[in-house]
Amino acid sequence: MTHTETLTRYVANFVDELVQTGLTDVVLSPGSRSTPLSMTFAEHEAVNHWIHVDERSAAFFALGMAKEQQKPVAIVCTSGTAAANYYPAIVEAYYSRVPLLVLTADRPHELRDVGAPQAIDQIHMFGQYVKWFEEMALPESSEEMLRYVRSKAARAFYTSLDHNPGPVHLNFPFRSPLIPDFSLDHLWGGSSEQSFHHAYHGERTVQPEVIEEIKSRVDKHQKGLIVCGPQTDQDLPVAVTQLARYLQLPVLADPLSQVRSGQHEKDHVIESYDAILKSPTVREQFVPDFIIRFGAMPISKPYWLMLQDHPEIEQYVVESYEGFREPSGNAASLIFADGKHFCDTWVNHFESSFFDVEWLKKWQEANQLAKATLIENEGTTLSEGHVFSEILKSFPEEGSLFVGNSMPIRDLDTFMLTTPKSIRTLANRGANGIDGVVSSAFGAAAHGEKVTLVLGDLSFFHDLNGLFAAKQFGLDLRIVVINNEGGGIFSFLPQAEHKKHFEPLFGTPLALDYSKVIEMYGGQYEEVGTWEQLRNSLSRSYEARGLSVIEVKTNREENAAWHRQKWKQIERALLER
Length: 577
Prior knowledge:
The protein is α/β, with parallel strands linked by helices. It folds into 3 domains: 171 residues, Rossmann fold (3-Layer(aba) Sandwich); 165 residues, TPP-binding domain (Rossmann fold, 3-Layer(aba) Sandwich); 198 residues, Thiamin diphosphate (ThDP)-binding fold, Pyr/PP domains (Rossmann fold), CATH 3.40.50.970. Helices cover 41% and strands 16% of the residues. It has 22 helices and 18 strands. A 6-stranded parallel β-sheet has the order 2-1-3-4-6-5, with helices on both faces. Strand 7, helix 8 and strand 8 form a beta-alpha-beta unit. Helix 1 runs parallel beside helix 6 and helix 14 crosses helix 21. The N and C termini lie far apart (84 Å).
């Protein structure tokens, strides 16, 4: 058998096996050494192949797609630094628990560490940030090796999903010539309807006696909280709010918890808890005896400060699988179980506890006072927080809101009030970076989801290459760029007091005309300066096709002062109630 036939059958069986396991999408970046993988993926009719020339952007694009689809997406690149450009997205995927199949082409062993071009050490190059690494065997076409390559493909797919999802890395050494022959008979190896290793996933359950033990502990107290941090399970909001109603406890709902929006009951949802807890004086009035938390640690810093100030608070953290996400450093009881199953088991198997009803009312009254202050609009000047208020008012009944890090996610935390709309909130909060956000949002929009991206000007600048997806694939995406000429979040930090070095080191104004970039990528651009202009632009953007960018220019110093004024007003209202 010739080299070309051996190569073709080996790679074709690998690609076909991924299809059998359920892979539907692959993001390809051009390169020579990856030719066997790229051409074979493109040849398979059951795979959507997306071509992205920038590997860094390609990986974030796949990340956003996998996040929205909640299933693995493959990425393919050539050897050398092309693979290294995947690194930021792989780190994000690892910490945000998103399944990716990282497939890197490599030089064969005889061309490694001998000065050959485009050859770097790719063995375990992503370290602990992948769940599994495999250096693939050189292509062979024996029945044994075709079973081998199918086994590795199936294992990679299921490993990316097993327990906490995440990226896996397979490294493929290929010898030249690299062009496959698709005229071969039985190209896909006589594939069946079931994958080589078929995996069945069961629900991670909790035994009633575990909940009985937790209940016996918390029943000794009067003041409890249910906290729902960032998470993506669409079934959890109903279960969590039902548990809260059953126990008559408040639910502190992070904006990425999926609890603030939807048709479920929200009487117990406290969406303004970050604003309530901003004041140290007020915070001392809302210290609970115990907390039952679902999802990751909430974005809110005041919540985290409350935990740090009160390590005596009993914590019960429900995690679907392994993980110790407790950055406050306090003691916690970890319950490894499906969150919905935990809530349902408690509600269905045990009598309701009797906690302090006045505690719930106290939180609900504080929430109403905080919301009343937050929605007050003092004038015509565009304020960053109220930009989110306007976006959420104009938002369609169903869609996804993708939010950048630094100030935008914090303003979403403050200004996203509960709504019956079905708004899915997404963000790259694994590593909290400002890179790759544009690409991730396009990935989330790749299959027709109505996505609106809100981010700052620095984050936008970091990923301008991501805009190429609009022109390349004709995707629809609305982007609101909040341009405060630099890193607005630093205006809230102690660095702002050091005027000599603040602007060049932290403020970092860019003074760029983004309209020219949008034009280059074939998008529609508008700069708005009033609330009426913003509302009209948002309305037009939801009717438009393709890329639509709205730029909102604000002042960093005025923004910081405006936020502090809001927090002071809330503090005063809560102390005077």
